[in-house]
Specification:
This protein has 142 residues and is α+β, with helices and mostly antiparallel strands. It is 37% helix and 18% strand. It has one domain: CBS-domain (Roll). A three-stranded antiparallel beta sheet has the order 1-2-3. Strands 4-5 form a two-stranded antiparallel ribbon. Helix 4 packs parallel to helix 6. It is elongated and about 45 Å long.
Length: 142
């Protein structure tokens, strides 16, 4: 099964120049845990998570209204291609301890794949289980 068969194609993203407070509102409004950070032409530049907002902005006592996303985002995010096999995507997620994987085509964001997307299929639930186990047991200290 290919990544493009499972990925979510309607992805909410944010510009690197937008405020951290807008990122937080988007996460809340859409009930998601991460936002791809993209340029105006759709090129993936980073990822910002709810954890990034808390640790790199709020806990650092920065003003979320005045802190641009580019200052707190994770740069050079790991991604998959639409034609990649889902099993490979699950291995990438496990190896990098991430639950959501941006999907890019020639550097442009075209979707997001989550462990939940993988777990919903009967053909790949073992890979999702293995990836979640890796993510949960090998938590890196940041």
């Amino acid at each position: 099964m290919k990544v493009n068969e499972l990925m979510c194609k309607n992805v909410v993203s944010i510009s690197p120049d937008e405020s951290t407070s807008l990122a937080a509102r988007l996460l809340y409004r859409h009930n998601i845990g991460s936002l791809p950070v993209c340029t105006a032409d759709g090129r993936l530049r980073g990822i910002v998570t709810d954890r990034d907002i808390v640790l790199r902005c709020v806990a650092a006592e920065s003003d979320p209204e005045r802190t641009p996303v580019r200052e707190i985002m994770s740069r050079a995010p790991i991604s998959a291609a639409p034609e990649d096999d889902v099993r490979l995507a699950a291995e990438i997620m496990a190896a990098h301890q991430i639950r959501r994987l941006p999907v890019t085509n020639e550097g442009k964001l075209v979707g997001m794949l989550s462990l939940g997307d993988i777990a919903k299929t009967n053909t790949c639930n073992m890979e999702a289980s293995r990836a979640l186990s890796e993510i949960s047991t090998n938590i890196k200290k940041r």
